[in-house]
Amino acid sequence: MNLSPTGPVPGSQRLDLLDALRGFALAGVLLANLEAFSLYYYLSPDAVIALPTHAVDRWLDAASGLLVSGKFITLFSIMFGIGFALQMQRIGQANGRRWYLRRLAVLFLIGLLHSAFWWGDILRAYAVVGLLLLPLARVRPRNLAFLGVVLVYLPHLPWPQDESLASHAQAFADALVAFSSHDAATMLLGNHVFNLWWWQSGWRVPASLPGLMLIGVALGNAHVLRDPAGHARFWKRLLACLPIGLALALLVVLADYGRLGWVGDATASWRHALEPGAVLMIALGYIALFVSLFMRPAWHRWLRHLAPVGRMALSNYLVHSIVGIGVFYGVGLGVGPRYGMVAVVCAWSVLFGAQIAFSRWWLERFRFGPAEWAWRSLTYGQRQPMRRQPGEDAASTLAARS
Q1: Distance (Å, rounded) from C-alpha 173 to C-alpha 175?
Q2: What is the phi/psi pair of residue 387, to 5°?
Q3: Is 306 inside any structural domain?
Q4: Is the distance from CB of 128 to CB of 108 less than 8 angstroms?
Q5: Cα distance between residue 315 and residue 369, in whole Å
Q6: Looking at the domain assignment, is residue 194 inside a domain?
Q7: Which distant-in-sequence residues (6+ apart) come within 8 Å of 285 by Cβ?
Q8: How far apart are CA 353 and CA 358, in angstroms?
Q9: What is the pLDDT of residue 266?
Q10: Where do the H-state alpha helices sit in 38-183?
Q11: 193 within domain boundaries
C-alpha cells in the first residue's frame, strides 16, 4: 500500500491534522487509564484469574500491553513538544516567554487539583518539564532529536529509596480497598497515599519525559508536520519504526508472560534494554502512520472526526477522570473490576464515542472547550470570549486558538 501524502495541505488542514493526532493520542491514553479507573490494574494475579471474564481478559490484556500501554502517553508527550514548537513560531520566543510561563503555572495548578482525585495525573509533570524546553527552543532539530533519544534511554532518576515504603503488592492492595470504598474521605486519602508511594517508590519519574518533549520540539521545528507532502520521504522512513517497535514490544510481552524462558535477572535486564526503544518506536510509527493516512482522502473523511476531540484535549482528559471514578469507584456506581478488561474496552468505546460527538457539538457553538477556556482566561488574567458569534468563520476561530 502506498501511504505517501498525495497533495499540499492548507493551513486549516494542518491544524486539523495536529488536533486529530492529539485526539488519536487521547483515545489511547483513555484506554490505558481505564485499566486503573476500573480497578483491574490493582488486582492480584489470583484475583485476575478468578474473574468470570478471564478467558477474554488475558487476550485483551496482552493486546493492550503490546499496542497501548506506554505508547499513547509517549505519543501524547511528544505532541506537547510539538505544540510548544508551534507556539514559539507563532509568538516568538522572547515575546512569548512570560505568557508561556504563566500558561505552565496555570496548567500545574489544574494538574495539582486533578491529582487530588486521580493519582495518575500527567499535567503536573508536563508543566514542570515544560520549563526545560525554553532554553532549548532554538537548538537545531537534529540535535534536539538526538538529545531526546538519549534522555529516553537514561535510567530512572537516582532518588534514594525509602526502605519504609510499602511493597508493590501491599500498595496495590491498599489502593484497591480505598478506591472500592463508598466513603469519599477514604478514597481521597487512599489516592493521596498511593500518589506519594508512586512517586517515591521504584516507579520514580523517568528521565524519558523531557526526552519525549524534545523529540516533539524537533518534529515541530523541522516543519515536517507543516508540510507533510514535502517531507514524504521522512514520513516513509519514520513509518519503518512501527514494525521494528512492535517486534521488540512482542518480545517484552512474551517475557512478561514467561513464554521466552527468561528468568530472574535475565528477564529484568532484557526488558530494561528493549522496552524504552520499543515504546518510542511504536509511538513514532503511530505518528507516521496517522499522518500518512490523514493525507489520503478516503481516510481523511474518518480521521478528521478526531480533530474536535484533540482541540478539547484538556477538557476531555479531565472528563476521563470524572467518568472513570463515577462509574467504577465505590463513591460512584461501584462497578469495580468485576468485569475485567471486557468492561474497560466497553467503557472506552462508549465514552470516547460520546466525546467525539460532544466535542463536535460543543465547538460548533463555542470557541474553546470549558477547561481550555478557563486555562486561557487564567493565563491572560481576563475573561476570554467563549461563545462563537453569528457568522464567525473558520479563520476567526483558528486565529482565536493561536
Answers
A1: 5
A2: -80, 140
A3: yes
A4: yes
A5: 6
A6: no
A7: 238, 239, 240, 241, 242, 243, 244, 245, 246
A8: 9
A9: 47
A10: 45-50, 54-67, 71-91, 93-115, 123-130, 141-153, 168-180
A11: no
Selection from 134, 110, 131, 136 nearest residue 122 by Cα: 110
* Residues contacting 129, CB < 8 A, separation 6+: 209, 210, 213
Q: How much of the chain is helix, strand and coil, in % rounded to 5?
A: 75, 0, 25
Cβ pair 278, 252 in contact under 8 A: yes
DSSP letter at 140 equals -
Under a CB-based contact definition with an 8 Å cutoff, are residues 138 and 92 in contact?
no
Identify residue 113 by its one-letter amino acid code. Answer: L
Which residues of the chain are modeled with pLDDT < 50? 1-11, 156-159, 163-164, 203-205, 259-266, 393-396, 398-400, 402
Q: Which three cell numbers stand for residue 202?
A: 521504584
The pLDDT, as a whole number, for residue 139 is: 87
Q: Model-level pTM?
A: 0.87
Number of domains in the chain: 1
* Integer angstrom CA distances of residue 126 from 43, 80, 81, 222, 391: 29, 8, 10, 22, 36
Quick check: is 192 in a domain? no
Cell numbers linked to 376: 486561557
Integer Cα distance of 20 and 309 in angstroms: 7
Torsion of CA 41, 79, 282, 310, to 10 degrees: 70
Residue-range definition of the domain harbouring residue 294: 11-157+205-397
Backbone angles phi, psi at 166, to 5 degrees: -65, 155
pLDDT at 396: 46
- What DSSP letter does each residue of 333-390 carry, written as one string? T--TTTTHHHHHHHHHHHHHHHHHHHHHHHHTTBSS-HHHHHHHHHHHTSPPP-BPPT
Torsion of CA 29, 33, 35, 40, to 10 degrees: 170
Residues 6+ apart with CB under 8 A from 351: 30, 320, 323
